[in-house]
């Protein structure tokens, strides 16, 4: 398994990973990443600003997951862990740990806090975030664009 920065030619593959995971967990609806305009061109979205990046997990030449870091609501101190999804056959293999650590190491260079929003139906992911030092919030931070999320987390960097 290789963890590397997103390349422009990964756009279609990572979009398919994200969309298939969203469908799996009922996230293919309004108010979630499903409708993000950037989803079809993540490379452009993450590569245009310092302090923002996206990584993919690649297995045998195939993109099988990824996650990104971007400023939350244009904050200088709070970033957001975004679009962390892995295909079902990769979950539980140990790749998620190094993937999130790569993202958080990058985030520490630019921010003081890391926020994320997700769905309660993604129970294993929520346990994973808690295991990696995220604590649950009672509601979204002001400036959230994903109004349909129902689970929110924060981590001190």
TrEMBL record:
A single Gene Ontology MF term assigned here is: N-acetyltransferase activity
Pfam families xrefs:
Acetyltransf_7
The reply on keyword Transferase is yes
Q: Which UniProt keywords apply?
A: Transferase
Show the PROSITE patterns listed in the entry.
Answer: GNAT
Where in the numbering of this chain does the N-acetyltransferase domain appear? Answer: 1-157
Q: Kindly provide the name given to this protein in its UniProt entry.
A: GNAT family N-acetyltransferase
């Amino acid at each position: 398994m290789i963890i590397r920065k997103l390349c422009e030619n990964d756009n279609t593959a990572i979009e398919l990973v994200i969309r298939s995971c969203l469908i799996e967990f009922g996230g293919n609806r309004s108010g979630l990443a499903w409708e993000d305009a950037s989803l079809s061109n993540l490379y452009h979205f993450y590569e245009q600003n310092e302090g923002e990046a996206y990584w993919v997990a690649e297995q045998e030449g195939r993109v099988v997951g990824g996650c990104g870091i971007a400023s939350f609501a244009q904050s200088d101190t709070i970033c957001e862990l975004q679009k962390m999804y892995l295909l079902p056959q990769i979950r539980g293999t140990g790749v998620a740990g190094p993937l999130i650590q790569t993202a958080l190491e990058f985030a520490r260079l630019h921010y003081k806090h890391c926020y994320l929003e997700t769905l309660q139906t993604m129970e294993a992911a929520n346990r994973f975030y808690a295991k990696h030092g995220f604590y649950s919030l009672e509601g979204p931070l002001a400036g959230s664009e994903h109004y349909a999320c129902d689970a929110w987390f924060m981590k001190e960097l």
